[in-house]
Design brief:
Oligomer: single chain
Structural class: mainly alpha
Radius of gyration: 28 Å
Strand content: under 5%
Helix content: 40-55%
Order of helices and strands: HHH
Number of helices: 3
Length: about 110
């Protein structure tokens, strides 16, 4: 039964074309899309911005970037500072989107 099914099914030859540049890759995608103009094109929704994690309540034994800190403490301090800067930047971005004219509402 399986052999007769395979004989009835038409065989498609796959032509493998390797794009040589980004322009070739884009051209192949457009050609494939335009080969079936009735087929709907799916356009994904843009990603929603993700809120950063809230800052930790306590950071124990972090001396900072000053003298007296060991080699490991500096990297801990740098990571905490980077996360805090990213969080403040995100807060500023959200405030700018909420009030595009630049003034704060009471």
């Amino acid at each position: 039964v399986c052999e007769s099914m395979e004989e009835k099914r038409p065989k498609r030859e796959k032509v493998v074309v390797v794009p040589r540049s980004a322009a070739d890759e884009q051209r192949f995608k457009i050609e494939r899309m335009m080969a079936e103009p009735e087929r709907p094109v799916v356009i994904p929704e843009p990603r929603k911005p993700r809120a950063p994690r809230p800052p930790p309540e306590f950071n124990f034994d972090v001396m900072g970037s000053s003298a007296g800190a060991g080699s490991g403490e500096f990297h801990i301090y740098r990571g905490i500072r980077r996360r805090e800067q990213n969080r403040l930047k995100w807060i500023d971005t959200q405030a700018a989107q909420a009030h595009p004219d630049g003034r704060d509402l009471p």
